[in-house]
Amino acid sequence: MRKIRWIIGSLLILTACEKKVDITVPYSGDKIVVNSFVQPDSTVYIRVTRSQPPGSNAFPEVPDATVSLTASGIPVQTQWQVIGGRGYFVSRTPAAKGMMYRIQVSAAGLDTVSASDTLPRAPLLKEAFAQAGGNRVKFVLKDLPGKDFYRFRLYAAAPDNKELPLRRELFRFDPSYNNSFTDVATENFLETALVSDERFDGREITIVMQTQDVNMKDEHLILEVTSLTNASWQYLKTLELQTANKGNALVDLSRVYTNVVKGYGILGGVNAANLYIQIK
Amino acid sequence: MSLARKLLPGLLLICIPLQVLAWNWRTRITLSLKDQPLFTACEKIEKAYGIHFSYSRDVVKMNQRVTIDAKEMSLRRVMEILFSENGIQYKRIGDQLVLTVKQSNTRTISGFVEDARSGEKLIGATVYSPQQRIGTVTNQYGFYSLTVPRDSISLLVSYTGYLSTPATLKDKENRQVHFKLNPSNTLQEVEITENLPKLQEQTQMSKVNLAVSQVKAMPRMLGEEDVLRTIQAMPGVSGGTEGSSNIHVRGGSPDQNLILLDGTPVYNSSHLFGIFSVFNPDIIKNVDLYKGAFPARYGGRLSSVVDISMKDGDMYNYHGEISVGLLASRGMLEGPIVKGKTSFIITGRRTYADMFLQDAARNGMKLGDKGSLWAYFYDANIKVNHIFSDRDRIYLSAYGGQDNMKLTRDKQFDSVGITPKRYHEQINFRLGWGNQAYSLRWNHIFNPRLFSNLTLNYSQFYFLTDYRYKYEALDSIREKDNMFGRYYSKVHNAGGRIDFDYRPNPRHAVRFGMQAISHIFQPGITRFNNVSDDQLLTDTMYNNRTSAGVELSLYIEDDWRIGDSMHLNLGVHTSGFLVPSSAYISVQPRLGFRYLLPRKWAFKISYTQMTQYIHLLSNSATFLPTDLWVAATNKVPPMFSTQVAIGLAKTFQGEQFEISLEGYKKTMHNVIEYVEASGNFQSATSNWEDNVIIGRGWSYGGELLLQKKKGSLRGWIGYTLAWSERAFPNVNHGRVFPYKYDRRHDIEIVLTQRLGKRWELSAQWEFATGTPLTLPTASYEQIVDVSPHLPPSRQDPSEVDLVGDRNTLRMQNTHRLDIGATYTVIRRKRRHMLNLSFYNVYNQQNPFFYYYKRNGAQQRELTMVSLLPILPSIAYAIRF
What we know:
The structure holds 2 protein chains of 2 kinds. Chain A is mainly beta. Chain A has helices at residues 2-15, 175-178, 181-186, 230-245, and strands at residues 17-20, 32-38, 45-50, 66-71, 74-76, 78-83, 86-91, 100-107, 110-118, 124-129, 136-142, 149-158, 161-168, 171-172, 192-196, 204-211, 220-228, 264-278. In chain A, the strands form 3 sheets. In chain A, strands 2, 3, 6, 7, 12, 13, 15, 17 and 18 form a 9-stranded mixed beta sheet that branches. A 4-stranded antiparallel beta sheet of chain A has the order 5-4-8-9, with no helix packed on it. In chain A, strand 10 and strand 11 (136-142) form a beta hairpin. At the A-B interface, helix 1, strand 1, strand 2, strand 3 and strand 13 of A face strand 28, strand 29, strand 30, strand 31 and strand 32 of B.
């Protein structure tokens, strides 16, 4: 349905006339935005920024914020680092599975915010396969009983390092699991597929993803399947909806989930498993 | 004394009572007479059954001629047929039936009013007794019943566009009289319209009747006439978003409208995602919109009833019409099957843009030589009616319509992008939705005062999309897919109802009846079959569940003339709804009161309650065919509303003008919002109730309608002052907020001007204050990755917009002028009509929606999108 509305919305836009308008939109005020996905055995990268008036697309960092991160009550030290021109509070130790992560961030003139989440179990993957000259990546996912949420992504690996993702690949996911009927007709290829296990709970399934580009012999692909906690799932799913529906007249602007109290953003547990696929 | 002599007196004593008891009122009588005097009937019954009649030939008129064909009919029924309608009273005294003259000061004249040329029954024609100054109007089937003093000998029958016909009654008995009216001007096309009595003579309020001629005279959008668009131009009715044919009545949502086509509900009334309504104007005879003061016979929806009657078809001559417009073409054919007894009408309409775009689609979308792209809507209606006798008539009507998009690709490719690769791809993709509605109705006149209609109907709405995808890599690669997927949702409705129209005396007009409806819901069923490289990956169905509910209702209403100045319409609609988990009962009082003030102003007041047992799950900004119908449950109970309206109304200056002023207040309980995040083709799964929030709604305001209904210049001015609000526990912190189509002021001016016999000009101007608007109240950075070391997204950068309180802002005001001109000429009995219309003639940029758009410098700007610029259109029609 989302795609249908997007298609109709796009058709409407084609026939429409647009003009810039000035409406005084009330601003809910600056708040601390905390953004971090916590992955077991990986360093925790935390972005701390300020919210801005509606329509902004640049968000000031808050390097002088006080960040308090704990793992099941045990403090985790962080330090400010600039990576690729952007500042992060980076943990000195990797995240550990089975922990409850809690964060509290305060900054002068802003409400102190807090958030917490656990880390999900890792997805179980096997038998990844991609053939040269083909447009398919096939693999087996074993889902355990209980509610699980997954994110699927595909990377082209660096020629000299099969474990180093080089660029994101576009693909179509099996519509049986995400109802993406119109992808078939619209040749819609995506970077990400977010799928819950409600259609294969507790089962082992073979998934075939159709890639946009042809698989080239001896190149490597990295299949990333990430388990998500409920908070991470809700954040990513609602973010996907809001992003997809921006500028669509047929859909009301949807809210993006946040688990940050008195602020915005997400502190979400994730657990990614990668399969490194040599194209044969 | 012989034994015989001894027994004879005893036998006589036994035989006399036996003879007396030889017949009773249930005795089965077989009697067939055609146009014979009454005394002949009595003689035959006497001879065959030993039933003696006693009467005075000087008093009882036994030479009245009767026709009867009774087979094994009860004696009482035969007596009713023979005598009741001829003013004769019968009574059993001993072994005799004594006939006397019925002592009554009144008599009842009943029958049908119809077009003399076509036999089309006229709805709302007035039958009036000038002597007594009392009258009645024909009902939905053209039937009238008027009880007048016995010495009334003249009647006047009138109808807009027809010559008023005086009728003189020859005797003083009950009579069935059918009136045939001739059009007043045979040069002008006569459209059958409802011609209700003066406003001050109607207790009904909050009702709008639309003349189909008015619908056809309105300026058109893309050459299409549209009934619902015309309704939007009435006070109290809003169209929602610009260009939409949805209707929002007195602050209600489109799912709260009961739209009936020949008595059968139509669930989705629009084509092209709401741009056009599904009702072909060529088939429509009459349209009534009830915004409030709902008569007791209606129920099941909260906010409005749109009752559309289809034409019956010409009983005497064949006619047709073909119309060609920019968007669609239409055809209509009507005529007799058996002259004067059976007629039919059939219509069809289809858009054809896709037919001209085949080549462009094949090449542009790489569909291959066998590929195609179809995108169209069509609808078709058919109606047959047959007159069995003066008392019995049957109607069979059917509607079917669909919106369809079909894409087929069958092509061999040599590359993927710039990479050489040979493969063959086949795609069959389909997306569509549609309604079907069927009804069978039987009119029966029990006696001059009692009319009945039995209806059996079925209605269905469905949405469907499916694909079949086959892919096979050629050359040496083993890569083969065969995928199938289908999603559909359906709602079915099968029912029966019987309605009675009883006019016991001039002071009372009673309607009563009952209805049973079976609802079946299939809210989103999916099926997949996926085979890859000959390995079966998926073969399953999801949410394959069907739920049902049964709705039963009873109603009675009496339009009671308390005095010359005071009238009361008192009714009650009682309904029950049975679903597996719950049972609901609702008693809905309906009250209307009218008091005639000095200067012939009518003061009216009404109080109504309505209950709606079905909900629409929608998480779109507007109402779409993908929305899902579900039944009320114990967690999501039925909606109900209470509405009070008060008003003044008057028809004046020789029925040229009508004015009505109304104030209303409506409260709605258990209105819902579906908060499930809108995914791809969602289904109402077993836990859909968890995604529903339940709240309340209020709407109140005032409406003014000034209409000019006669003369070469016609039209109306409508003004609405309205508030419409909602409250939900988790929205805007539980505070009351404006409903998304809340418009404070709405002005509509519609004018049509005839110029001579050939030209008709029309103009429609509307102004409305802006609807509520929700915009983000802040923006902030988003995150999708665990680590900054991962490769960046290929997509544009994005951010999160914070959605705060709902509907705190307003869009800018809207206004628009549409104009049209129709030139009509008659050549060799064929009527040629050419219409030229301009929608939004001064190209006003009205807001459709607002959003933050990224400009060339990657800055985001608040942008207003206007959808419909000036749209010229031309349409040609020929009627023969």
